[in-house]
């Protein structure tokens, strides 16, 4: 390990760069915060079924890729332990369900490869003596509620569980120690909102908005550049950690190429948050400058952008990359807006509360719900866009 | 991995056997609970300096054993990652300090072995290219406050950190995956208090006491048998997890062979807890039957007992085993009894609160402090007994 890599092992004293170096900034840039902890009304553990339903649309594809393209025989020939990592696992339960599916698919693949190579072997003997052990690393930010995660681990799990605290934008694991990486609903969280968004002298000054939705191109470009930089780092560190032949599955928010973000429901939601906060500023509940200085560190890339970044990195073969409609599971039912807002709140409240104060959260999310309800026809008319990306990569 | 081992991977639905099967039992037997979490007045993180001072008395010996007997060259020839585990790590900070010392000793040993085998190698080159990476697994019970542990991890650490929830009486890690185990102030916690202690028809019925201190031999024997059973399991599972040549350091409470536990300060303390609770029962604050049904799952073995258990297991070479005075760091100063009780409270409050109710904890620990202060001369006269065990084992 070179000295340059070493610094990635540890957090710096300022891991999120919250005390960055830009002169024109009124407030620190916003870095990601963990999902809401615990098991309460607005907890992620109680409000993440939408993420599960959307991710479940990709489950069959992931299993297919494992069955067709993961060489378990090769992976287990170098080590008697197969290590999986879920990056951005939050507090459960979604992480436990998908890890279980992946693990079972890997076991099936292992058995099928085993029976191909020695068809007459006694099945029970093979299972007992040749099935590798599995170790699963659940990763999220240091401030994630790991206590809730650990106390809700499945009692009948057939793997060794470990929690790994830290940002997945840095090194988390030893070199060549991981065989399978899964990350869902996480990679659209960039490491920090771009500093230039707070620079009053820049065309990228993001005044009166909390996101790049409906913003000038310069704002969108600043977000896109940060995403590209983060993904570059992410792929570099994962390439170091994954064994050759190891697989990485990424599910994240996306957008059809060239489509303005305001044309999909998530963008409409961010616009409602921006205007709710501006209304509150006008009423004196918060300061307008607080809105100007807050930028949600969230970017949805197009499939083409992702493809370009992965190919530029060069360490991974793209086994599958496609976009799909994350709301397909709703079928013909309309979006339940109050429930949707609760799900969003469980995911983003930490960031807003840290900046605007937790005392205004009920007010803010209440207004957002009302505004979204007012445009529910519009939301429902655009909910079938392909705004979810799936990428299955193999370390080469 | 045989099927029998598989069950050790996962907790059962009743991992502590809290709902065991003994008919005569009024209340569930007491299993260990984690140390007090958080950073408050009675937290372990704020009240564990005594444990650190006592463990520090062994630090030099541990480093000596690493320097003299750990073959880093051999360990790192099979893997580019060296894995350490601290079992019963609690919330910090003690775990971070000792892990750092051990890790630095291992790095020094690695460098010295490297320079012996290729004395002319450029030192910087050797460091960068041949020093293995380190991964540290911090283990404690599922209910331990891992959130406090993770948010206080050293920012400048030179290792990959992971938390592993679960009882160390069961499997925690894949086969042959760990190179060094450290456990301090933990192994005297047995997996559960013996069920027979609650059997009114047995000579081991432990009426009116919360521990075997000043109890009939049958009570002491029941505790000793549980400890022997637990240590047998502990050594078996660790033998599976440790690589050949790997080292295990255990620091735990002990007692000179044949000495009644009432003759050392810890025993005096347990007697004060028993009598405080009995006083409270007489005053109607708690029920006397509650005292009868509570038994602290804590056993201090003699060096000879430990030696016999390790030798019977047969998987480990005893590199060093000795007893010493854990209060030696006090030098000539008397024991500060209120501070001592706060340290004990941080460690055991969870178990007492779960059984007697958290509302009587202030009352109980207040009375215990008063009773101990009344016998402070006696406590101080017996504080220099060799009641701490150190065992350094090597997997053979």
TrEMBL record, chains A, B:
It comes from the Eukaryota. Keywords: Magnesium, Metal-binding, Methyltransferase, Transferase. GO terms for molecular function: metal ion binding; methyltransferase activity. The keyword Glycoprotein does not apply. Gene3D superfamilies: Methyltransferase, alpha-helical capping domain, Vaccinia Virus protein VP39. GO terms for biological process: methylation. InterPro entries: MeTrfase_7, MeTrfase_capping, SAM-dependent_MTases_sf. Residues 1-47 are annotated as: Disordered. The keyword Transferase applies. PANTHER family: S-ADENOSYL-L-METHIONINE:CARBOXYL METHYLTRANSFERASE FAMILY PROTEIN (PTHR31009). This is S-adenosylmethionine-dependent methyltransferase. It comes from Malus domestica.
